[in-house]
Amino acid sequence: MIHLHDKTFEAFISSEEIDFAIKNMAKQMDDDFFNEIPVFVGVLNGAFMVMADLMKQYRGMCEVSFVKMASYEGTQSTNEVKQLIGLNQDLEGRTVIIVEDIVDTGNTIEELKAILKDKKVKHLKIATLFLKPDAFKKDIKLDYVGIRIPNKFIVGYGLDYDGLGRNLADVYQLAE
Ligand code: 5GP
Ligand code: MG
Prior knowledge:
About 20% of the residues lie in helices and about 30% in strands.
């Protein structure tokens, strides 16, 4: 059990399970992009840890970049999604893989895809370490999914509760 602010969280997904899922994602990506140099774009802040571990497992040549958006306040997803900042790279003709920590409703991914629409990328792929299939109702293809989880609020491995918990190596869920 851990305590962050006013809430208690219990152990949910170990760093070993995360490691296994990330190795599988990297292997799939290596198979898919062996003859090109893709651009991995991590979505800050949450994706900083999955990006670091995924990039260490990816064997091919690649570029690494980060952007920032936010759609979350506390434990409730809001419908308001902010703008993209930090994309200062020409993506024209490139294979771009968006790397997310978690896809919940899919609003963030939808917004990201809309913003990147006029960047003339060759292929736009989506990768996420965690997915909540029961919350995700968008008609958007998620190309690489690490671990599917129930509709629970999780922290750790890059994910926070009001700023805390991002540095935890394991993932915890809100205790009932
Ligand atoms: P979506 O736009 O798909 O509803 O939510 C995506 C973003 O919401 C994620 O990138 C993440 O920042 C945040 N989010 C969604 N579910 C969770 C969760 O269970 N825990 C935490 N800490 N953040 C979440
Ligand atoms: Mg995120």
